[in-house]
Amino acid sequence: MNEQFGSLNSAMTSNQALQASSLVGRDVLIPSSTGVKQAEGGMAGVVKLPQALDNMMVRVENEQGQLIKTFDMGAKPPGEHRLEWDGTDERGNVLPEGRYQLKVAGLVDGESREFDVSTYANVNSVLLGNGDGNVMLNLAGFDSPFKLAEVLEVGKV
Question: Which of 57, 68, 131, 138 could make a disulfide contact with 125, Cβ separation 3.0–4.6 Å?
Answer without folding.
Answer: 138
